[in-house]
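Ex. 9. Protein: Integrase catalytic domain-containing protein.
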Amino acid sequence: MAKGKRKYIIVAVDYFTKWIEAEALASITTQQVTRFLKSHILSRFGIPSAFIFDHGKQFDCAEVIEFCDQVGAIARFASVAYPQANGQAEAANKAILHGLHTRLGDAKGNWADELNTVLWAHRTTFKVSTGETPFALTYGTDAVIPMEITSPTYRITTYDEADNDEARLLDLELAQERRELAAIKLAATKEQVAKYYNAKLVPHKLTLGDQVLRRNFRPDPKHGKLASTWEGPYLVREVVGANTFKLSELGGAKIPRTWNAQNLRKYYQSA
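Predicted C-alpha cells for Integrase catalytic domain-containing protein:
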C-alpha cells in the first residue's frame, strides 16, 4: 500500500496513440471514475467517441452511463469476466506494473510516487505497432527526454530559438501525415496478429438457440464448497463472434453484455 492508503490504479488508454492516463487511488468509486474521466480525459483531450469499460460495478452502473450520455460519448463494455476482450487496457496494466517493478524492486510502498515517471517512459517510447511514440502521435512532435540533456543530441545542440516557431509549425503540418502512416502500420500489425490468433483459435461449437450454462463468479457463500460453479441454463440469442455470445433467459428476458465462450458450456438436458 502506498502513501495515503492508495492501493488501486485506474487506467485509461487511447486505442490509436497508445497514450496511457492513470491515477493511484485509495478506492475506485463511481464518483472517482467520473472525476477521473473529467480531469484526465475530457479536460486534456476532449470527448472521445466511446469509452470501453470492464464490468467492475464502479463502471457498469447507471451513474457512469448517464455521465457518458451527458458528454456525448458511448459507454461500451468488454466481455464479462474476460479481460483479454479489452486488450489495450490489459496491455497498459502490464506495462505499468512492469515499469513499477523495474524501478522499485522490493520498495513497493513507493509505487504511487513513481507512477508518473513510469507513464512518462511509456509515452516517450517507440511502439512497434505504430512506429511512433504515444507522445508524438498525441502532440505532433517528439518529446525532449532527460537523456538528451545529459548527453545532448543533434536537435539539442543545433536548437535555434529564432527558428523554433517555424520548426514547430512544420511539425504540426506533418503531424497528420505521421498519424496516417502510423494508422497504416497499426492496421498491418493488427492483421498479422489476427492471422496468428485465428490460426490457433478453436471455435466453440455454440450456435443460435443453444442452451448453455454460465460460469457462476459469485456463488452463494452459505453453500460453502458445495456451491455450484455454473448457473443456468440460458439461451444463446446472438453469435457476436467465434467465441463471443449474447444470452437470454429461457423465458426470453435478455442478459446484458457479451459473454466469452471460456465462461460458457453447452447444456445437455437429462433424458
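Check your answer against this statement. The chain has a mean pLDDT of 86.
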